[in-house]
Amino acid sequence: xxxxxVTRRHDLTDAQWAVLEPLLPTVRRPGRPPSWTKRQLIDxxxxxxxxxxxxxxxxxxxxxxAAA
Length: 68
Hints:
Blueprint: H1 14-20, H2 38-51
């Protein structure tokens, strides 16, 4: 599954992501690479908290609700 760049109004900017990304842990286990980027998952979590919606209502562009 290919990932799509998300450019929504309330998503992290490139500058914000540049500050946050080095603070996140790196994946060190073998296997299949993740289908969703960490940036998509974090933006999805931020969307969910801001909207107050259930996990299953997260838009598909942020990744699967079961992945977070």
